[in-house]
């Protein structure tokens, strides 16, 4: 088990492909082009499925990171996006713009000895996969009964 974990820690992170500089200089498309399914599964297989996942503690909305990553590793993309939606309705955005290096990825145990699992890239992949291959289903709407705090109200009154 420890041997398996050490091997995963040494496995390099799967780099996301990017447009060639000469091509990207002539268009306004995103520079990173996204993982393929094979790349996503390879990256997902680097996750140690920690029992006490630091990555979840580092995520402001508490996404079940090992859960959705495990679903990707097993090719269950329908399950992976729905798992994400339980905590985050905007994985395409968060996978692109969240500062993962100081949040989830900054707390990933694999990052202690190697490169952290590319959680943001995997989140983005789930959302893009759903957009391209999904049923068009939208994330569930938030519970209207849930209490909303006005911005001026402190979450933890002194
Ligand atoms: S801390 Fe890293 S290795 Fe552990 S569950 Fe989270 S992503 Fe996977």
Automatic annotation (TrEMBL):
<feature type="region of interest" description="Disordered">
    <location>
        <begin position="1"/>
        <end position="21"/>
    </location>
</feature>
<protein>
    <recommendedName>
        <fullName>Dihydroprymidine dehydrogenase domain-containing protein</fullName>
    </recommendedName>
</protein>
<feature type="region of interest" description="Disordered">
    <location>
        <begin position="133"/>
        <end position="158"/>
    </location>
</feature>
<dbReference type="Pfam" id="PF14691">
    <property type="entry name" value="Fer4_20"/>
</dbReference>
<dbReference type="InterPro" id="IPR028261">
    <property type="entry name" value="DPD_II"/>
</dbReference>
<feature type="domain" description="Dihydroprymidine dehydrogenase">
    <location>
        <begin position="24"/>
        <end position="134"/>
    </location>
</feature>
């Amino acid at each position: 088990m420890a041997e398996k974990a050490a091997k995963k820690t040494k496995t390099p992170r799967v780099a996301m492909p990017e447009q060639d500089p000469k091509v990207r200089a002539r268009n306004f498309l995103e520079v990173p082009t996204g993982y393929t399914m094979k790349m996503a599964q390879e990256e997902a297989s680097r996750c140690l499925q920690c029992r006490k996942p630091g990555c979840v503690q580092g995520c402001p909305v508490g996404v079940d990171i090992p859960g959705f990553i495990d679903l990707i590793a097993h090719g269950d993309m329908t399950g992976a996006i729905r798992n994400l939606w339980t905590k985050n309705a905007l994985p395409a955005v968060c996978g692109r713009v969240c500062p993962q290096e100081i949040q989830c990825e900054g707390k990933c145990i694999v990052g202690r000895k190697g490169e952290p699992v590319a959680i943001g890239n995997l989140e983005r992949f789930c959302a893009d996969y759903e957009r391209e291959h999904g049923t068009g289903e939208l994330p569930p709407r938030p519970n209207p009964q849930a209490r909303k705090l006005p911005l001026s109200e402190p979450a933890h009154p002194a």
